[in-house]
Write a structure and sequence with these properties.
Length: 279
Amino acid sequence: MKARNAVYASIALIAAAAAAVAGWQFAGRGAGGTVVRTAHAEAELVAARDAAEPGQSLLVALRLKSKPGWHTYWRNPGDSGQPTSIEWRLPAGVSAGPIGWPVPQRFPIGPLANYGYQGEVLLATEIRIPSDAKGSMALAATAKWLSCDPDHCIPESGELALRLPVGRGAQGKWGSAFDAIPLPRQPPAEWRLRAVRERDRVWLELAGTSAKALFFFPYAEGKVQPAGQQMLQTAADGMRLSIPVVAQAVGEFARLAGVLVIDGGHGYEIDVPIAGANP
């Protein structure tokens, strides 16, 4: 992990120097906010509603649109990469929650595999508006992301701003896009989950459903092999998924926490204690 971070720190320094010379970043004005265009992505802040209502929460997202062939990263980037980050600068009394990460994709690259997003992704955050807000509200953020294709990784960033009127408002231009964000769901009540450690793998047992395909995206780095094959077996009362574990896990590996994707579609957030976690 330290070695990987050191490599990407070096990449960041080299790319930052190159960006200063090449002039990668262009900032324009969108409807109410800044649109930043780099060599490999477009970024802006967008809101689910067209106004910030006092005393309520408002979903505001970093919209990242990668150029074809390039991708950005999930909260756990996999074998390499860095998660996208948002550093908010907000008016007094306004606060921001954590990023709501959509279900990621898996990108095999040679012997490695990464987790992230191609095309357009909305990384939404809940912005809490104080009850005494009035006039208009200026939201600002520094966004940093790593744009990668199979051969290159370029650190990029943007200074973003969005101004909204304070008031009741209605669904905004991006409202339907917020509704379509593929956030992980809670598992159905009929599911019964159990995880068992057997040497170099964890078996996730899922009773109460049948599936043609399962894939598990772990929240924690350094525990599950991102490039390892996850094998699915049929069991008497459901399915069993074999999840390969890294040879030397980073920290304690006592719970299987992450997103379980069913048949390449919906993702479900799970957190299951691992029986026999310390063989």
